[in-house]
Each structure stands twice: as structure tokens, then as C-alpha cells.
Amino acid sequence: LLLIFFMLTSSFVTPSGLPVSLPTSKASTIEVQKVSVTVTSDLQYYVNEKKVSKGMLEAELKSRLAGSNGSVILHIDKDVPWENGIFVADIATRLEAKVVVATKPK
After folding, report:
1. Predicted local distance difference test score (pLDDT) of residue 12
2. In angstroms, rounded to a whole number, what is the distance separating the alpha carbons of residues 36 and 83?
């Protein structure tokens, strides 16, 4: 019963299947993954493991988030300039989605 309660009241990020080296963080919360956006070290964009161009990212997120105020989990390789993460976060925010940055625990 306690396990079920814990599972229902907490959320978690499941790791994406794409090879990115996440930054580390001492503070982390667990979040249910709705839509995952991955930016690899060679600046390739993926939405839930589907490769999309940077120009098509907003349309793909809009279709994935349609009708819900979901969450977008950002899996940004630690070597990627953060302007790319901000670009994705801006799109998600305009679509009224919660933005969460995935990190590895220290």
C-alpha cells in the first residue's frame, strides 16, 4: 500500500534511449515524462526519440501536447550551448507546457 501511495504521489523521469551526457545536479526532483526533447552533442533534435528538424520542432511539440498542459523534459547534452535548450524551453512555454531539465544525480 505504501509503495502504491509513493508511486501515485511522486513522479519520475525515465531515461531517454538517446546517447546524451547529461549535466549533474545535487538537487533533483522526479517527474513523470510526458514529452521528451533531446538535443545531442551534434545538435540533432529528437521528440520522444523521433528525429525532427529544428524548424519542425514547434509543430511536433504542438501535436504531442495537444489538449493538455503536459510536461516537456529536456535532455540536453552537457556540451550543447544552452541557447539550444532555451530555444526548446521557449517553444514549450508558449505551448503552456511545464519545462523540466533532466540531469544526472551527483
Report:
1. 45
2. 18
H or E, element range at 103: none
The reported pLDDT for the residue numbered 5 is 44
SS3 37: strand
pTM for this predicted structure = 0.69
User: Quick one: angle between helices 82-94 and 57-64, nearest 10?
Assistant: 40
Within 10 angstroms of residue 88's Cβ, the number of other Cβ atoms is 22
Low-confidence ranges of the chain (pLDDT < 70): 1-33, 67-69
Strand 35-39 vs strand 71-76: parallel, antiparallel, or unpaired?
parallel
Task: Name the residue type at position 50.
Answer: K
Q: How far apart are CA 37 and CA 46, in angstroms?
A: 6
